[in-house]
Amino acid sequence: MEHVTLDVAEGVATVTLDRPEMRNALTSGVATDLIDAIEAVPDEARCVVLAGNGPTFCAGGDIDAMVEGLEGERSEPSERSSGEQRDPRDGAVPAHERVERIVEETAGAVRAVATCNLPTVAKIHGPAYGAGGALAVACDLLLASESASISFGFRQVGLNVDSGASHLLPRIVGENVAKELLYTGELIDADRAEEVGLFNHVYADEAFEGRVAGMVDRIASGPTVALKQSKRLVEQGPTSSFDEAVRNEAAAQIVSASTDDHEEGVRAFVASREPEFEGE
């Protein structure tokens, strides 16, 4: 993978967008590498952290591809009539094909994060913009530094919401706040993002790395099977009735109760000590 790195240590898989010169924008290469990185997370991982290299978490969609597309649309018909099959990111193809390809690639990257069955944490140290905001809210927890900010500024380039944000965002902040953020395209600071429920925690810049590491360690050292079950059940919750939720929980509890971690948890509770879960 050229544009995304994957590092695994002590049960934590850290996936880092690694194109700081492009502000980690979701170009075709970054989006494809991100999907590959999520798929490559090994079985021994117990938590996934998503980060960006450099001062920006993710600047969103590929603006260069949009510019090239606009220039291609303005070109003379003779320049676009060779009949050769072209990359849909090339401006010399019909606009609908180009837009469809860009949206599919970007949404595919967000989908890969949103559907990861492990607990996921977005580590946000700078701006998360547009599709970058969607990528952030695709994670289970959003941990931010004081310098972080977030925007769903699709309107700034004359586009409607995409990358799955219309599904993810209202589930976190509610429809009215989601609509406000989309209608205004406002880049909100960390405190405001925490206030509306987008960021779980905001840490001082100088304490950011240590505080994030502490939270991630708490998750990664937990009973992984049970946490995966809890994640799935919470995501099913909004579309389940109360009785369906109870049945789903009971079925999942059979799985969790059969693990070594459950036995360890019970023994630790009886002995009044901290459990040492192994994720099995």
Automatic annotation (TrEMBL):
CDD domains (alphabetical): crotonase-like
Please list where the region (Disordered) is annotated: 71-95
What the entry lists under InterPro entries is as follows:
ClpP/crotonase-like_dom_sf, Enoyl-CoA_hyd/isom_CS, Enoyl-CoA_hydra/iso, Enoyl-CoA_hydra_C
Question: What organism is this sequence from?
Answer: Halosimplex litoreum
Alphabetically ordered keywords of this record: Isomerase
What name is this protein filed under? Enoyl-CoA hydratase/isomerase family protein
GO MF annotation: an example: isomerase activity
Q: Please give the superkingdom of this protein's source.
A: Archaea
What family is this protein classified in? Belongs to the enoyl-CoA hydratase/isomerase family.
